[in-house]
Write a structure and sequence with these properties.
Keywords: Hydrolase
Shape: elongated
Oligomer: single chain
Radius of gyration: 21 Å
Order of helices and strands: HHEHEHEHHEHEHEEEEHEHEH
Number of strands: 11
Protein name: MBL fold metallo-hydrolase
Strand order of the largest sheet: 6-7-8-9-10-11
InterPro entries: Metallo-B-lactamas, Mito_Persulfide_Diox, Rhodanese-like_dom, Rhodanese-like_dom_sf, RibonucZ/Hydroxyglut_hydro
CATH topology of the largest domain: Oxidized Rhodanese, domain 1
CATH superfamily of the largest domain: Rhodanese-like domain
GO molecular function: hydrolase activity; sulfur dioxygenase activity
Strand content: 15-25%
CATH architecture of the largest domain: 3-Layer(aba) Sandwich
Number of domains: 2
Low-confidence stretches: 1-8, 19-36
Length: about 250
């Protein structure tokens, strides 16, 4: 549904709760995030050689001594890279450098790391970085491969509770790599989503976990870097979909 009318009362409640709670969400996120030392300790204890994007994201919620080693080509690296509120030191050494001059490449990494300092190796999909991480471990560097690489990082959604009360729950859904945020408000088994992000199945999964039925979708804006799953979700669920008339004419 596209129209100029105000959305139903569930949204009025959402905006009231959001205004009261959004800054508290940041404080809660910082206090409950998994510490980098805990992440690394868990990986060591499990004898794991890879880290998943949700684990890396948790580790980067505070200043960290991790070294990110990005082995993609120069063009890809300059186009986009891992950046967070606390972006760690990043070293860019293309994969072909390790193939052609492995010794020099490894020495450049060793110059940047103290004994025991973890290195997270990143490539596009996790294949080249896995190879480099293995070479580094053989040279005595504690190197961990980022599983799925930048593809997985780009698709990662962080779902965090802003508030969970007996009568309602509010979640912030953040597509970290794109800087896009949406909101899911649930009350009495019904849900509203504000600015749904690209992948609608992520919301379907969340609502299934919360035993809630989607009733309302609202896109506050539409532009090139905000690809909405609103139309898709409306078609899938029958939920009402609200969009500014101008955005409906000029998507």
């Amino acid at each position: 549904m596209v129209g100029e009318h105000y959305a139903p009362g569930i949204l009025a409640t959402f905006f009231k709760v959001n205004n009261q709670r959004c800054f508290g969400a940041r404080r809660k996120r910082m206090s409950t995030a998994l510490l980098e030392t805990d992440v690394v300790a868990a990986l060591r204890a499990a004898d794991r050689n890879e880290i998943f994007v949700h684990e890396l994201y948790a580790a980067l919620q505070q200043p960290t001594n991790l070294l990110l080693l990005d082995v993609r080509n120069e063009e890809e690296f300059q186009m986009w890279r891992i950046e967070t509120r606390h972006t760690p030191e990043t070293l860019h050494l293309p994969y072909f450098f390790f193939l052609e001059e492995e010794g020099k490449a490894i020495e450049q990494v060793k110059e940047r790391v103290q004994e025991g300092r973890p290195v997270v190796v990143v490539c596009a999909k996790g294949g080249a970085s896995d190879y480099v991480a293995e070479r580094l471990r053989e040279a005595g560097v504690y190197a961990i491969n980022l599983a799925g690489g930048m593809v997985e990082w780009g698709d990662f959604y962080d779902v965090r509770p802003v508030t969970e009360q007996p009568d309602y729950r509010l979640y912030q859904v953040d597509r970290v790599a794109r800087g896009c945020v949406s909101w899911v408000f649930i009350s009495k088994g019904e849900a509203a989503i504000v600015d749904p992000l690209r992948y609608g199945e992520r919301y379907v999964k969340l609502l299934e976990q919360q035993d809630a039925q989607l009733k309302l979708l609202l896109d506050t804006h539409a532009h090139a870097d905000h690809i909405s799953s609103g139309p898709e979700l409306a078609k899938m669920t029958g939920a009402a979909y609200y969009l500014h008339p101008y955005d409906a004419i000029h998507p």
